[in-house]
């Protein structure tokens, strides 16, 4: 049998199905194999015996030499026992697939093939092949080391002689397994295993890339090595053994080092003699000393020996070593070390002399040194485990340790790993898991990362970007800038603007159509305003989309901006488009930006699939910081978020960072790492900068001769080096040339980035002409990065250090601003920002101050048009501060415009007190009423925001109307005045047809427009303060519109308010006229594009009073919710709050599912709290209590602190409690409230028509129950039922949908009480049918319940049970568990009877 076939058959008989893993990182596997059956095993032993015979040439290994027979061999019986002890674990298994895919080749032959692989190849290909060969040799070396390590666990190995160990480690004792496939994913992947012949064992290699990619040579990447044990090496193998004899371990390390040295220095076929006793000649010996001036490059190092410079001759011992090195515990008299014939100890030549890297050379040297016994150096390996760990590092990160990347004296910059995170594995896993939770759940999460500057917050987040993108997610990142506080909202808005592009790119045409429709439904014409804020919103619209006409008169403030952005995020966020939104340096964010972020995160409707991450400097966020307030608000709003606190690196992590940076094994740079950690305390950025400073001062230097970084700890310790990174960077900048320092100073004045447009503009001036060149040099020096359009500081600390070098900062900013003053629109804001950072005292004269003030005012106007209210406020406030002291006289127009815009900007930002103060100054300094009318209007709006200021708003409205010629009384003394103006206005409406009123011309007179605007505000304010006089103002307002015969955006409000006043009287002809006028007002509103900002207020009035008499209550709810959305989007919180409170109450009356309604109210409660709508919060909480009680959940807080001092709250408090008491069976409570109702005046009772009608309905049904139960006051109850029937009959005449079922039910109750059974049954059936038609499921339920009570009383229990079951179904559909239980008990009682 031929030797090659023997080796092949050995491979074919191997199996690795049963395994035990020593490492578990889940990447690559090395497997020990053994024969799988007795027959195979016997053949295998025969093959081993053949290979061991002296008569057999070792042709299978391609060396042409015999295997040196070891003094001792594993005998057949030993191996047989080893196999038999584990035979049972592999029965039935085979490894035929593996054996078919691989071939076995002797190690010596494989090394020869590897040496000749790159010969006669293209230089580029040759270099790549040689690098791959280094990886493969190291992989084989690792496999051999692992096998030797496993052998050392066998007890019998302890008894091996050194000769036997040496024979076991000889090159002839190993073979490699190679893939038969022609193509592999990467060079080196064809290596599939390593075989040790005696004692037999093998490793199977499954290759995959490591996490640490080779950044310099992408085609040759790192890999991981993991081992799996499939059978013990010997019968006495102890898998659980953790301790190995240090003597045996050192011998094996020593022998492995020699074997690796042979791998990388050549083979016998290249002239290396096998003779163990070869003596160096006088000519050979000097060649072993490398000349300091000639250092092999990386390319030279990996060339085969015949291609290398002739001066370097490899010297390798035959089977690696002649004799053993003295090891503690061995015979001191034995031969030891590597000696020549004269007995002089020889050392193996360093691999550096052959052009290899320092780390590879050090690996081999430290292994070989393990054989020096008492003389072994401190850096020799303490164990095989340590050596294997370093070998893994070489394989995983060849670009760091295996290649020599410091080839020339000019290339001595640190090789910094910008991908790897040191000591942040838990944090990276936390962020990665958060994103994948977001992806899988479709929900959103927030993470806030705090830490000191330079601790790696930004890099931590960036480390998961690749995972996000590879998963189909979008990454949007922005950072706040300490120098850009004048345009703070721009950071958040620009991030959202970029997000729109991502959504557009990831959406189909059908999806875009859906997005467009949802935007129209949620924000309507405000989509145009939204496009003004976020221009990329247009990209979300389908190609055929037509934008609605924008209403330029609709204002927007910060609250409306937040609300609109919330709606946008609800529409574009989707589980199909996961998003990571990262905002960095939140410590520099302004109040409005944080509040905008908070409003998005705390959106009660919820976002889909968005992971928000915020980074901030922990030491710069103290008590009272807006970010802490935001986190507190998120907590109280039940918004889930997590925090990550980044601490500095540990000493171990610092050591790993320095190891990677210097390309030196971690164990060899611990001393330097200890000093660096002591200085930097483990701050990642400071650590690298400190290391750079040591290099700059030559305290750490690169040795070309030794190919490694060197340092002197004594010198470093003796040096006085700062432990402050800012001082370190300052010194670093100070040594630059003056023009380079100037460039960094200029860039620092613009923040962390400076655009090329600004650079080119400044370069056009003589003072800054060298700026572009100097910035390019700053990029080369590592201070800045350049992406083609902007220069960016590599770290904020660099910018801080550069900015700190400016002595007179205000003058410096002024000089830059003046240099940019003539720039175009692209640089306009940058110009103003620089000028505004200077001091007004630096300006030459008042003329220059006024000129700059005018520019700042212009910048403020532009910012307001972009809805950047905070920036506008900053610009305009600066403009006001620059105006001379006599500006109200010398520059009146500019001063008036600046102050009014300042008041408006402050109002839009929500800074009410400041806005009021400015308004008062304008009113005081204004020359005429025309100049102050806008200010008066703004002041009234400001006063309406707080109930305590309502009286001031009321008096201001009266004052302005009086000044405009419309004298209004503060109160109505004579009721006849109210009656008179009401009748006059009614007659005017009766005289005009609908067409006449709808065709009135548009008002253009500014005075009349101001009068109607003030009437609008006066009616709203008086409604809360003096409800009776508000009727008078409503009549006067409508009368003014009719007498002028003109219309404007305020006319619909005048008509609707007058209609509401008429509807508060009896349900007669006045109510019918009110319905006509109200509908006219609503029609005029829908026809006028300019009246959109009036919509919330008009809807509130119409649907609270008049609309309920004409339109189905379900339709009213839809329209009122739409009005609420529009009001919130326009910043009209007061009227929006009122209409929402009314809408939720009407939802209860309409029979909306209670569980859905409860969830909706919870959402609105959070929104009301977020926007500080206290009155609305009180209204909603009352509704929440009632809904909870109707469901059967009594676990709600008390509403004792709710405000009950408005008509709407009064309606909710009074009427809803009557309804809840009625349905829960507390008829006496309803009766008690009805008596309170009777004691009210006519004006109070009929204030709100819907309350008036509902109170009659609830009171009538309560009286029916009490009368049926035989309670006292029977006549009163009968009278009450009769009165209720009359009221509901009138109401049914206006709206059958809303009131007919109630009217029929009261009639049925009356007939039941008067024993008119046939009529009662007919009316009960009609009431049930009418309730079904109007979709009032709860009223269908109570109709069935009362009908059942009627039939039970008459003895018809079968019909009664049927009706009760129907009622039970109705209440179940309504969501009232408590009513279900009540009906169930009634059914049970009837069935028992």
Helix and strand arrangement:
Elements: H1 3-12, E1 14-15, E2 20-21, E3 30-31, E4 34-35, H2 38-52, H3 76-84, H4 96-101, E5 102-106, H5 107-117, H6 123-151, H7 162-168, E6 174-179, E7 191-196, E8 201-204, E9 227-229, H8 246-265, H9 284-287, H10 298-301, H11 358-368, H12 384-396, H13 398-401, H14 425-441, E10 445-451, H15 457-462, H16 465-470, E11 474-479, H17 489-505, H18 509-523, H19 526-533, H20 558-572, E12 579-584, H21 591-601, E13 610-617, H22 626-636, E14 641-646, H23 651-662, H24 670-680, H25 684-696, E15 700-703, E16 708-711, H26 713-718, H27 725-734, H28 738-748, E17 753-755, H29 756-763, H30 771-780, E18 784-786, E19 790-793, H31 796-804, H32 809-819, H33 828-836, H34 846-865, H35 869-882, H36 887-890, H37 892-909, H38 912-925, H39 929-944, H40 950-963, H41 975-991, H42 994-998, H43 1006-1025, H44 1027-1044, H45 1051-1063, H46 1069-1087, H47 1095-1106, H48 1113-1129, H49 1133-1149, H50 1154-1170, H51 1174-1191, H52 1207-1223, H53 1227-1239, H54 1242-1245, H55 1249-1268, H56 1274-1294, H57 1296-1313, H58 1317-1334, H59 1337-1353, H60 1357-1374, H61 1377-1392
Parallel strand pairs: 3-9, 10-13, 10-14, 11-12, 12-13
Antiparallel strand pairs: 1-4, 2-9, 5-6, 6-7, 7-8, 15-16, 17-19, 18-19
Helix pairs in contact: 1-2, 5-6, 6-8, 6-12, 8-11, 11-12, 18-20, 20-21, 20-48, 21-22, 23-24, 24-25, 25-27, 27-31, 28-30, 28-31, 32-33, 33-34, 34-35, 34-37, 35-37, 37-38, 37-39, 38-39, 39-40, 39-43, 40-43, 41-44, 43-44, 43-45, 44-45, 45-46, 45-47, 46-47, 47-48, 47-49, 48-49, 49-50, 49-51, 49-52, ...
């Amino acid at each position: 049998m031929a030797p090659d076939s023997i080796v092949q058959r050995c491979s074919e008989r191997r199996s690795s199905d049963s395994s035990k893993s020593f490492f578990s990182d889940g990447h690559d596997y090395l497997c020990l194999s053994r024969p799988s059956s007795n027959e195979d095993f016997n053949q295998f032993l025969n093959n081993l015996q053949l290979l061991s015979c002296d008569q057999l040439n070792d042709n299978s290994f391609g060396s042409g030499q015999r295997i040196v027979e070891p003094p001792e061999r594993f005998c057949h019986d030993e191996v047989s026992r080893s196999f038999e002890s584990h035979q049972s674990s592999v029965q039935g298994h085979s490894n035929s697939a593996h054996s078919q895919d691989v071939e076995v080749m002797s190690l010596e032959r494989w090394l020869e093939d590897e040496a000749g692989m790159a010969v006669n190849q293209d230089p580029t290909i040759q270099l790549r092949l040689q690098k791959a060969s280094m990886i493969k040799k190291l992989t084989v070396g690792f496999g051999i080391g692992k096998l030797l390590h496993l052998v050392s666990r066998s007890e019998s190995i302890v008894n091996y002689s050194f000769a036997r160990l040496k024979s076991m480690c000889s090159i002839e004792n190993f073979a490699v397994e190679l893939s038969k496939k022609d193509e592999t994913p990467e060079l080196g992947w064809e290596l599939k295993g390593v075989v040790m012949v005696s004692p037999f064992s093998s490793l199977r290699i499954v290759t995959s890339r490591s996490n640490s990619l080779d950044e310099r040579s992408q085609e040759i990447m790192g890999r991981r090595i993991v081992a799996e044990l499939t059978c013990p090496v010997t019968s006495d193998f102890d898998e659980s053994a953790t301790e190995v004899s240090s003597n045996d371990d050192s011998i094996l390390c020593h022998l492995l080092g020699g074997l690796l040295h042979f791998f990388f220095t050549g083979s016998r076929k290249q002239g290396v003699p096998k003779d163990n006793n070869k003596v160096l000649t006088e000519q050979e010996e000097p060649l072993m000393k490398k000349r300091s001036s000639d250092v092999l490059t990386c390319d030279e190092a990996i060339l085969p020996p015949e291609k290398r410079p002739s001066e370097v001759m490899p010297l390798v011992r035959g089977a690696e070593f002649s004799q053993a090195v003295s090891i503690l515990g061995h015979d001191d008299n034995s031969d030891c070390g590597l000696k020549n014939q004269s007995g002089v100890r020889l050392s193996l030549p360093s691999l550096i002399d052959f052009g290899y890297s320092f780390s590879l050379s050090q690996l081999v040297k430290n292994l070989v040194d393990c054989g020096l016994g008492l003389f072994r150096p401190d850096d020799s390996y303490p164990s095989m485990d340590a050596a294997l760990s370093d070998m893994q590092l070489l394989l995983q990160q060849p670009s760091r340790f295996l290649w020599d990347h410091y080839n020339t004296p000019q290339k001595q910059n640190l090789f910094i790993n910008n991908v790897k995170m040191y000591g942040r594995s838990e944090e990276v896993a936390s962020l990665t898991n958060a994103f994948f939770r977001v992806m899988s759940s479709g929900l959103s999460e927030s993470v806030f990362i705090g830490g000191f500057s330079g601790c790696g917050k930004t890099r931590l987040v960036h480390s998961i970007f690749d995972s996000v993108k590879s998963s189909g997610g979008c990454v949007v990142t922005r950072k706040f800038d300490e120098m850009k506080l004048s345009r703070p909202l721009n950071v958040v808005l620009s991030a959202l603007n970029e997000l729109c592009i991502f959504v557009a790119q990831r959406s189909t045409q059908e999806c875009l159509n859906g997005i467009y429709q949802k935007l129209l439904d949620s924000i309507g014409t405000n989509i145009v305003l939204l496009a003004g804020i976020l221009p990329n919103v247009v990209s979300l619209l389908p190609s055929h989309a037509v934008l609605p006409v924008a209403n330029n008169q609709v204002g927007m403030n910060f609250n409306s901006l937040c609300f609109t952005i919330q709606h946008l995020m609800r529409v574009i966020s989707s589980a199909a488009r996961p998003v990571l939104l990262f905002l960095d340096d939140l410590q520099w964010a302004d109040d409005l930006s944080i509040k905008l972020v908070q409003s998005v995160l705390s959106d009660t409707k919820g976002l889909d699939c968005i992971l928000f991450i915020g980074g901030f400097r922990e030491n710069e966020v103290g008590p009272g910081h807006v970010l802490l307030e935001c986190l507190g608000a998120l907590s109280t709003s039940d918004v889930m978020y997590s925090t990550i606190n980044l601490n500095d690196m540990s000493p171990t992590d610092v050591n790993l960072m320095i190891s990677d940076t210097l390309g030196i094994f971690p164990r060899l740079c611990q001393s330097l790492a200890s000093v660096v950690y002591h200085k930097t305390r483990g701050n990642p950025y400071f650590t690298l900068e400190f290391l750079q400073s040591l290099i700059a001062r030559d305290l750490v230097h690169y040795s070309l001769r030794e190919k490694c970084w060197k340092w002197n700890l004594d010198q470093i310790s003796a040096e006085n080096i700062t432990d402050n990174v800012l001082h370190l960077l300052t010194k670093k900048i100070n040594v630059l040339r003056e023009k380079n320092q100037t460039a960094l100073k200029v860039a620092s004045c613009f923040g962390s980035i400076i655009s090329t447009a600004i650079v080119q503009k400044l370069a056009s001036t003589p003072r800054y002409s060298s700026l572009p060149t100097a910035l390019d040099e700053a990029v080369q020096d590592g201070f800045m990065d350049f992406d083609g359009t902007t220069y960016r500081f590599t770290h904020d600390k660099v910018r801080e250090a550069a900015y700190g070098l400016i002595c007179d900062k205000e003058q410096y900013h002024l000089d830059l601003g003046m240099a940019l003053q003539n720039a175009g629109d692209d640089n306009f804001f940058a110009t103003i920002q620089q000028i505004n950072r200077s001091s007004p005292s630096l300006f030459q004269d008042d003329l220059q101050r006024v000129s700059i003030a005018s520019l700042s005012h212009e910048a403020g106007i532009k910012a307001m048009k972009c809805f950047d209210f905070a920036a506008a406020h900053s610009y305009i406030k600066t403009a006001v501060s620059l105006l001379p002291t006599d500006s109200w006289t010398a520059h009146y127009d500019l001063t008036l415009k600046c102050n009014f815009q300042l008041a408006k900007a402050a109002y839009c930002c929500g800074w009410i007190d400041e806005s009021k103060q400015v308004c008062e100054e304008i009113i005081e300094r204004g020359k005429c009423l025309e100049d102050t009318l806008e200010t008066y209007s703004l002041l009234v709006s400001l006063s309406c925001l707080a109930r305590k200021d309502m009286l001031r708003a009321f008096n201001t409205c009266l004052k302005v109307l009086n000044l405009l010629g419309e004298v209004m009384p503060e109160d109505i003394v004579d009721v006849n005045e109210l009656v008179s103006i009401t009748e006059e206005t009614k007659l005017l409406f009766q005289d005009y047809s609908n067409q006449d009123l709808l065709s009135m011309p548009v008002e253009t007179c500014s005075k009349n427009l101001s009068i109607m605007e003030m009437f609008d505000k006066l009616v709203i304010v008086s409604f809360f303060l003096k409800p009776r006089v508000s009727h008078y103002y409503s009549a006067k307002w409508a009368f003014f519109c009719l007498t002028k015969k003109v219309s404007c955006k305020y006319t619909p409000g005048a008509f609707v308010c007058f209609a509401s006043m008429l509807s508060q009287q009896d349900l007669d002809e006045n109510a019918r006229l009110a319905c006509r006028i109200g509908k006219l007002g609503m029609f005029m509103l829908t026809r006028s594009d300019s009246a959109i900002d009036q919509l919330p207020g008009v809807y509130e009035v119409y649907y609270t009073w008049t609309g309920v008499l004409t339109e189905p209550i379900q339709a009213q709810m839809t329209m009122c919710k739409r009005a609420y959305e529009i009001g919130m989007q326009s910043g009209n919180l007061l009227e929006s709050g009122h209409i929402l409170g009314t809408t939720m109450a009407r939802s209860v009356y309409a029979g909306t599912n209670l569980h859905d309604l409860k969830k909706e109210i919870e959402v609105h409660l959070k929104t009301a709290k977020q926007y500080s709508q206290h009155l609305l919060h009180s209204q909603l909480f009352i509704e929440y209590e009632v809904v909870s009680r109707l469901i059967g959940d009594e676990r709600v807080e008390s509403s004792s602190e709710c405000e009950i001092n408005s008509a709407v709250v009064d309606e909710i408090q009074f009427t809803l409690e009557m309804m809840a008491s009625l349905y829960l069976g507390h008829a006496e409570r309803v009766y008690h409230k009805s008596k309170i109702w009777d004691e009210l005046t006519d004006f109070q009772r009929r204030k709100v028509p819907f309350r008036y009608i509902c109170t009659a309905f609830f009171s009538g049904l309560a009286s029916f129950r009490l009368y049926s139960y035989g309670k006292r006051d029977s006549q009163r109850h009968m009278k009450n039922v009769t009165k209720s029937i009359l009221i509901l009959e009138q109401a049914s005449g206006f709206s059958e949908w809303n009131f007919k079922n109630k009217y029929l039910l009261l009639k049925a109750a009356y007939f039941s009480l008067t024993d008119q059974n046939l009529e009662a049954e007919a009316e009960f059936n009609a009431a049930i049918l009418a309730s079904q038609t109007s979709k009032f499921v709860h009223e269908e339920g109570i109709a069935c319940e009362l009908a059942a009570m009627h039939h039970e009383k008459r003895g018809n229990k079968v019909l009664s049970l049927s009706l009760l079951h129907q009622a039970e179904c109705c209440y179940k559909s309504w969501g009232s568990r408590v009513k279900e239980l009540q009906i169930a008990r009634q059914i049970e009682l009837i069935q028992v009877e």
